[in-house]
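Quick illustration, no need to memorize.
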Amino acid sequence: MNPLLQDFNTAPFSKIAYNDYKPAIKKGIEIAKKEIERIVLNSDTPTFENTTVALDFTGEKLNRISSIFFNVNAAETSDEIQKIAKEISPWLSEFKNDITLNEALFSRVKSVYDLKNELTLTPEQQTLLEKQYKGFARNGANLNDTDQTELRKIDAELSKLALQFGENVLAETNAFELHITNQNQLAGLPESVKEAAHLLATQKEKDGWVFTLDYPSYIPFMTYADNRELRKKLAIAAGKKSFQNNKFNNEQIVLDIVKLRHQRAHLLGYKTHAHFVLEERMAETPEKVLSFSKELLEKAKPAAKKEFENLEEYAKKLDGIDQLQKWDSAYYSEKLKKELFSLDQELLKPYFQLERVIEGVFTIANKLYDLQFEEVFNIDTYHEEVKTYNVTDTAGSSIAIFYADFHPRKGKRNGAWMTSYKPQQIKNNNNERPHISIVCNFTKPTQTTPSLLTFNEVTTLFHEFGHALHGMLANTTYNSLSGTSVSWDFVELPSQVLENWCFEKEALELFAKHYKTGKTIPMEYINKIKESASFHEGMQTLRQLSFGLLDMAWHGSELPEAIQSVKDFETKAFLETQLFPDVVENCMSTAFSHIFQGGYSAGYYSYKWAEVLDADAFEYFLEKGIFNKEVANKFKEHVLSKGGTEKPMELYKRFRGKAPKPDALLKRAGLI
């Protein structure tokens, strides 16, 4: 029997064979279609219960199977998995269209929606009804047959292109390595970095040291290697991913995706893809996003220019460099930071042993939200490195199952993300608890040292764990509104707000202990972490805004078919935010997975948007105390548990008592 088609609680990873996925997805689609059919053929008058609620509970089996498959495709992929993904993605996009373009189903949904003012509904029920109706309307239910056929074609093509884009980026990441056999070329690199590179070389059956484009290898090299030529070589390799004259080139794919998204938006009656996307976000319109970005740009640009000039001057004084290049940025920033604050990432790393940081984030979750984490070894995983935990409250009631996967592997894409294997919902009076996972790419342990994190990696862990809390503490009736199912520019609030605890003495003392001596991180280091938190914040803000503006340029363009060159278009979009000279052989768009493969198209601005929310929210914690139960309970009640049951601004104001202002962010960033 196919394990994916059996009833299971936690995902049965070890029992699944590659050839189980396709028949399981096929069967899942079949089951879901029957569930839809039951709603459509119901001869009773459409009601909220027999139509709206019934529809929300359809496709459960299919959703669980596909979430397992696509999570494996991201964290433990292989040629076979990628081949299956290409086959099943069009099936799923076709099925999605089968639902949203089902006239009889839409007619029932619409008839309940049309009566919405006469029904007595809770805010959550109103949201579900509204969201469901819009889900149909925004996906072509009101279109004529010809346009609906066109929409199906576009969606199938887009799902294939996004997959191909991601596969190309992964292939390019895996294809490059910097192999060093001359020890002198390692000057400047910390021992732990050299050891990790030597271990990698050994695994690849090579002499010397190997560096790759995976972040735990790439970032330390760019930060510490004295050899400028090698930094340049690595930076250019990273910057030309899928922008080379080979079969992994993504230029045409970018142009095709942008053009198809625009056509889709047009078909649905929107001016651009950005207008389509933003209608359902807190920001609402591209105009609002652009004015928000420009306002921050005005504040950040003078600071960024000044920081850049100082850094250039510093590099000139130190090494006689006339023109600062992109491959110099991390290197001289780290040196200058060390000089200004006597703060060295390598000094901090011994205090951030991965296991202790995990314990720390668990303790913080316990102090704030009364959660308890117990590592268990009887839950199936897709790789031996994945850790599993039972999460309970103080009464011992089950809150969630939590998976954590921390280190880079060949089959794992770069970066860090949170995902879910089972959503929370209340069904048949039973509160079904969620299964949540975080996936990261942190420095691996070596033969002599455990996994020691850079401070940046510590904040990444807290960030993803903030998303996980949003998933774990979900407490809504309907799964489509549960956990992180919120508007995209609100979803980063729980993750970004948790990062703030990494900078607080009271929190750091819980887990920042030297891996050899067990001594707590010295107070002077904590002060320096805080002092240096806004170091080069102008440049960082400018960089983040540049990505958001590039995204808006691609998706707010009214004539994407006129774009000839990806590189030229990108260069123009970066003009207002450019500090470093352009590198001819590099292009960001061809590897900008967030917007061309992930769900961030016309939404990259949301990182900055959520920073305004998170700085404003954390200010409330600071006023009352970072472990203040009253504030934590409000945050849990109005933000973390509520998912997308109401408009995010309403939920935020209920927590904070007022609308957010950018002042807290600008103050924190040292920009005012």
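The chain has a mean pLDDT of 95.
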